[in-house]
From TrEMBL:
Annotated family: Belongs to the short-chain dehydrogenases/reductases (SDR) family.
Keywords: Oxidoreductase
Superkingdom of this protein's organism: Bacteria
Keyword tRNA processing applies: no
SMART domains: PKS_KR (SM00822)
Classification via Pfam families: adh_short
Location of region: Disordered: 263-283, 288-307
Identification of the protein by name: Short-chain dehydrogenase
Ketoreductase domain sequence ranges: 8-202
InterPro entries: KR_dom (IPR057326), NAD(P)-bd_dom_sf (IPR036291), Peroxisomal_Beta-Oxidation (IPR051687), Sc_DH/Rdtase_CS (IPR020904), SDR_fam (IPR002347)
């Protein structure tokens, strides 16, 4: 049976380990040719011993698939541009970009250094924008030359970006920024055949296995391992395939066997009296509106966990 991504060329950033590795293997299993990007950095973004991308390429080849490694930093223009060039050089085209690479520098806001702010904003937010821009330029050129692609982008946000997460001000801001970028890219790129969606995953990787050791642990009885990163990849592969035609500008939470469509900001209770209010009147109206508004979901780490 033909795979869901037969003939497609897929780039996955940060695919040397964790979720990105699982996505790369899952795309290859559905027939895609894969560019496996990874800079091979530590959990905090500092240089690591070597890029694990080559190892994932070997795993894909052992399964009979085709893949090449790319070891560039996706948060630099050279790294992002050469990533798209790697797909074109090796396989002659690009169909899907999965933005996934990133790292954490967790601190309470009062202790958060400017460096920790910049590094996390850079790798997640710029690290999504630059590969997206490089891929979009190629897809626009293809469309203008009369060869529109069924192009797909899957961005990686987080529950921290959707609700906020205590101790992760930098990460939450970057991941919320990725949601805004996703909506704009979907609106701008649709005319060139490009669909852009985002996921907020949860899985056991080096990023989460210590902080959330208990919730992330594999069951000892051999039952369904809900927090395995491989559970997130099926949605990513479908969003990255031709089969998801018509789905764009959407955000999905996904973990274990669950997929949730996240419904974004929309107007709640509102009052327009057609004239300016005094501050005291503004307060009175706001309290009335809040009384009939949905209470917000708590930020992660600040209240009861969401079921
Ligand atoms: N694991 C979770 O539960 C979870 C939850 C929400 C969001 N996420 C997001 O999922 C993505 C993957 O995370 P993970 O848990 O698999 O982490 P991970 O640390 O296992 O993998 C991330 C990979 O990105 C690579 N990388 C980092 N900076 C890079 C750069 N500049 N250029 C190229 N590669 C780079 C690292 O070397 C690493 O291999 C991240 O964006 C993360 O924020 C993960």
């Amino acid at each position: 049976m033909a795979g869901l991504c037969e003939g497609r060329v897929v780039v996955v950033t940060g695919a040397g380990r964790g979720l990105g590795r699982a996505h790369a293997l899952a795309f290859a299993a559905e027939g895609a040719k894969v560019v496996v990007n990874d800079l091979g950095v530590g959990l905090d973004g500092l240089p690591g011993p070597e890029s694990p991308a080559a190892q994932v390429v070997r795993e894909i080849e052992e399964q009979g698939g085709e893949a090449v490694a790319h070891g560039g930093d996706i948060a630099t223009p050279q790294g992002a541009d050469s990533l798209v060039e790697a797909a074109l050089d090796a396989f002659g085209r690009l169909d899907t970009l999965v933005n996934n690479a990133g790292f954490l520098r967790d601190r309470m806001l009062v202790n958060l250094d400017e460096d920790d702010w910049d590094a996390v904003m850079r790798v997640h937010l710029k690290g999504h924008f630059l590969p997206l821009r490089a891929a979009a330029a190629w897809w626009r050129a293809q469309a203008k030359a009369g060869r529109p692609a069924a192009a797909r982008v899957v961005n990686t946000s987080s529950g921290a970006g959707l609700l906020g997460s205590v101790g992760q001000g930098n990460y939450s801001a970057a991941k919320a920024g990725i949601l805004g970028l996703t909506l704009v890219a979907a609106a701008e790129m649709g005319r060139y055949g490009v669909q852009v969606n985002a996921i907020a995953p949860a899985a056991r990787t080096r990023m989460t296995e210590r902080t959330f050791a208990q919730t992330m642990a594999a069951p000892e009885d051999g039952g369904f391992d809900a927090m395995a990163p491989e559970n997130v990849s099926p949605l990513v592969v479908w969003l990255g395939a031709d089969a998801s035609a018509g789905v764009t500008g959407r955000v999905f939470e996904t973990e274990g066997g669950r997929i949730t469509v996240m419904e974004g900001w929309r107007p709640g209770p509102t009052a327009d009296r057609g004239t300016r209010r005094t501050p005291a009147e503004a307060g009175e109206t706001t309290l009335e509106l809040l009384a009939s508004a949905e209470p917000p979901l708590p930020a992660y780490g600040s209240g009861p966990a969401r079921g």
